[in-house]
Amino acid sequence: MKLKERPYRFVRAGASATEETVLAVQERLFPFVSSAVRDSHAAEDILQDVVLIILEQVHLLRKPDRLWPWIYRVAWSKVQDHFRSRQRIRHAVEPIRLEFSNLDAADDLLDTMVRRESVEQLTMALGRLTHRCRTVLYLRFYEQMPYTEIASLMHSTPGQIRVQYHRAKKLLRDSLLASCA
User: Fold this and answer.
1) Predicted TM-score (pTM) of this structure
2) Which domain-ending residue is among 91, 107, 128?
3) How many C-beta atoms surround the C-beta of residue 76 within 10 A?
4) Which of 22, 27, 34, 139 has the smallest C-beta neighbourhood within 10 Å, fewest atoms?
5) Does residue 62 lie in a domain region?
6) Residue 41: CB atoms within 10 Å
7) CATH of the domain at 17
8) Among 17, 21, 83, 6, which residue's Cα sits nearest to residue 46?
9) How many structural domains are present in the chain?
């Protein structure tokens, strides 16, 4: 018997029921959310939020047969929150701009050219990152903001911001290594 046929079963507590819920929600909603946000990492973050809300609030659901429509509404609400937060962040944080002014002070023309090329490669690698990744990197690395402040600015949790920061660093490193190879 599939979860679809017994939509309210996982409301009754139990570790296996919770795992079943998480797997069912991820399996069913990931295509929906990822096609809406067009970013698999953001989709995973949104799905985490959706699962938390479902587990916390499913007991409030009055009509068990309306479970999946409710879950889709929660997911759509989180997708809209994602786009709203991107809009706020875009206005709050200026894009990363690397300065060339200190490059011209080099003694050697070759050093200047190597530094400029390095800055150009870094700029291109940053351009390949999503806006959210660039923002988290900028706020954490350049502004040296703690995870809690970044989380409050981006309407997220410090744990999610920490994961996004490390994910952004890895993506940046992989992008730079690929451009050097």
Assistant:
1) 0.45
2) 91
3) 16
4) 27
5) yes
6) 17
7) 1.10.1740
8) 83
9) 2
Q: What single string gives the DSSP state of each residue in 12-59?
A: S--HHHHHHHHHHHHHHHHHHHHHHH--HHHHHHHHHHHHHHHHHHGG
Model pLDDT, residue 4: 45
Q: What is the Cβ-side half-sphere exposure of residue 47, based on CA atoms within 13 angstroms?
A: 23
Please tell me whether residues 60 and 122 are part of one structural domain: no
CATH code of the domain covering residue 156: 1.20.140.160
Q: Name residue 38's amino acid.
A: R
Which tokens sit at 3?
């979860």
Full pLDDT tens readout for the chain, 181 residues: 344 444 444 444 555 667 877 888 888 888 888 877 888 888 888 998 998 888 888 888 888 888 888 888 888 888 888 888 777 666 555 555 555 555 555 567 888 888 888 888 888 888 888 888 888 888 888 778 889 888 887 788 999 999 999 999 998 888 888 877 6
Question: 109 and 161 share a domain?
Answer: yes
